[in-house]
Specification:
Two copies of one chain form a homodimer. Helix content of chain A is about 20%, strand content about 30%. The longest helix of chain A has 19 residues. The radius of gyration of chain A is 31 Å and the shape is elongated. The first copy, chain A, starts with 8 loop residues before the first helix and ends with a strand. At the A-B interface, helix 3, strand 15, helix 4, helix 6 and helix 7 of A face helix 3, strand 15, helix 4, helix 6 and helix 7 of B.
Chain lengths: ~400, ~400
């Protein structure tokens, strides 16, 4: 029966998306200063024109371009200075008549009647209240039009944007100080195993330090998800079942990381089957690494279950490919930017399985993706790698000279 | 005199590095769970072998490889089952004699005397306490050797590593639970200008909303720096001077963002000259955008001053190129990974100046860098861009078909 639930990674994703349809991430409002890295929960449309007035991009004089005609070094044009715009002062009462000019600093209001600004470098005060201008300008020169940056009704930022500093700048410019964002999923990480000791202890023969609960919690945090707890438990059904009940009450996602032995996998599957009212969705995925992956869903508490493979590389890759991608998909984020790189050796894939290959990148006009091989359970090669690329199930591997798409580790 | 202090961007960086030599970022120790994104302050050498015992990568039977000789489907070999390794239990007393086998789960201790593990799929219990094995194995097969992942004395992670989830996994594996990291610089952001209003207000004619203090604070936070305060102030010398004194007491970096008019630039330079005992280091950089940039240093309080250009794109690029690069350099971080992309149009540079060109990336085997042009003071094109590339001072621009290195916006 279990064999029937071994899915391709795409099928496993599809099942998660199906059950998640009913539990769209909630939204909340945060202040602009707290919005860096958060994911926008709705489209932001500008209610204003930016700039709201015609703005000078130079220190100079507002003029009527036709007044300067063929002004040049040898034959300057003369204009009458009739005022000065001060930054931050309402200059909307000023009006420029033919033959006049008004001083405007960078960023200043360009008075009505003017159609250009001539740089101060080409201007020289001359006699009392006159200005000699030694350059002609075309209409519109050195002026940012009303709404040229953003027009009223423009889409400022789309739902799903993970906010970067300049996006926050756009929101500030448009006066959006309360930002609608998605509430990060709450994640419980449970690592199980009689052989696990916590990192501050020295493992005895047959014992290993718990790695996965640290990497999975850190990966969650790096993505902006909220880690509500990290627990390490012995392989005791009753204890773990109780932990699952507690976690269901306050978590959106429960990540279980056990070993990769058959006994461990069966135990994880049974625990999920009992704790989740929709039971196990996927029991094993056709991926390398990543086969011993289990997913499940509890509808009543709206909790996703993911049982990760025990090997650190596999656990991180599967967590990235299933849960992080699901979060990004549900919140409408754009696909991450990947690096196109060339492999300079033949790398086999696992036939019929999605294969993930760790690589480091070597600089070049087209960077080289140099494979990093991590035997089962090893962590140092994972840390050495810059990222990984994937090979489709029906692909026989990549050949010397092929271009691959490298996902950078976060 | 000011003209003499207009520097190339490399010279401006050099001056900052010189004065910073005396103020290496301090270090502190944080717990492993809090170390994601932090920058490692010293090399980490492993004091142990990982794994500390010979570990099986399969569910299977520990055997002596020569006992299986030419075992195959048709002619299995028979071994005597003499024990079972339980995960997490000290099995170091077990010893495997010729003709024997011992069950070992994935991750389990491989008993002395054995030199390989044969997968459980090729094994079948046979009669009382005997095992039929239908496959031969070579010495070492399915075993991770002691120290194969990490050997005692190996460099685990180098100083300057910005810790990713898998790096935290390596530290966990090696038992490093207190992590030496750099104390993030404390940053005060002061935006000045009579024309600035805070984003929740509607700007009147000649007023604009404060953008830069939001983008610069957000960029600092995204880099892991600590923003101690963000202040917006009117163009009042005495008020700003007092703010600078307060900030000198508790900040490593004071970022001032004023306008780009000549009066504003002079005012910023004078304020830095008075507040910083080493005075102004750079007054203007030969960069486009970014010319009106001012740096200074106060030795007594060990405070860097950076006066940024007023235009949002310029402010962000200069902050990235000067301050963020300085922080990364001082903490020994590797250069960021950039994206090689092809331009499909001619793009001019500003002769004699380092030119930064905003771009979006368009997918392709070699991605295309499509230029984004932002007129002075505009913010929406900056948000549209995926990043920027730079053109050297002596380069005349890039041509259709050239490959450029795109720095992704954070």
């Amino acid at each position: 029966m279990d064999l029937l639930r071994v899915d391709t990674i795409d099928a496993a994703r599809g099942k998660l998306e199906d059950v998640c349809g009913s539990i769209m991430p909630r939204t909340e409002t945060v202040s602009l200063h707290d919005s860096i890295g958060r994911v926008l929960a709705r489209n932001i449309i500008s209610k204003e024109n930016i700039p709201s007035y015609r703005r000078s991009i130079m220190d100079g004089y507002a003029v009527r371009s036709r007044d300067l005609g063929a002004a040049g070094d040898m034959v300057p044009s003369f204009l009458k200075i009739t005022g000065e715009v001060l930054l931050g002062t309402d200059s909307s009462g000023l009006f420029l008549e033919a033959g006049q000019c008004i001083y405007v600093p960078t960023g200043g209001y360009v008075p009505d009647g003017a159609d250009a600004v001539v740089m101060v470098e080409y201007c020289e005060p001359f006699g009392s209240g006159m200005l000699a201008v030694s350059k002609s300008v075309s209409a519109g020169e050195n002026i940012v039009r009303v709404g040229e940056d953003v027009a009223e009704g423009d889409m400022l930022l789309e739902k799903g944007r993970r906010l970067r500093p300049q996006d926050i700048g756009v929101l500030a410019a448009a006066g959006i100080t309360e930002v609608p964002v998605f509430v990060p999923w709450k994640v419980t990480v449970i690592s199980t195993g009689d052989e696990l000791v916590s990192p501050e202890k020295t493992p005895g023969p047959g014992q290993i330090r718990d790695i996965n609960s640290y990497t999975i919690a850190a990966r969650s945090t790096a993505e902006g998800l909220e880690v509500v707890r990290t627990v390490s438990a012995r392989d005791d059904d009753a204890v773990i079942a109780a932990l699952l009940e507690t976690a269901k009450a306050d978590s959106d996602v429960i990540v279980m990381s056990g070993g990769s032995s058959q006994g461990k996998k069966d135990m994880t599957a049974e625990l999920i089957e009992r704790a989740a009212d929709c039971g196990v969705l996927t029991h094993g995925i056709a991926a390398k690494p990543g086969k011993p992956t289990i997913t499940g869903f509890d509808k009543r508490s709206a909790t996703l279950f993911i049982g990760l493979p025990g090997h650190p590389a596999a656990a991180l890759i599967v967590y990235e490919q299933l849960l992080i991608r699901l979060w990004r998909g549900m919140t409408g984020q754009n696909p991450e930017i990947t690096i196109k790189a060339m492999v300079k050796t033949n790398i086999p894939s696992a036939p019929g399985r999605r294969t993930f290959q760790l690589v480091t990148l070597k600089d070049g006009d087209i960077p080289e993706a140099v494979p990093v091989f991590a035997r089962s359970g090893m962590i140092s090669p994972v840390s050495l790698a810059d990222g990984f690329f994937e090979m489709e199930e029906n692909r026989e591997g990549v050949k010397d000279g092929d271009i691959v798409e490298v996902h950078l580790w976060k």
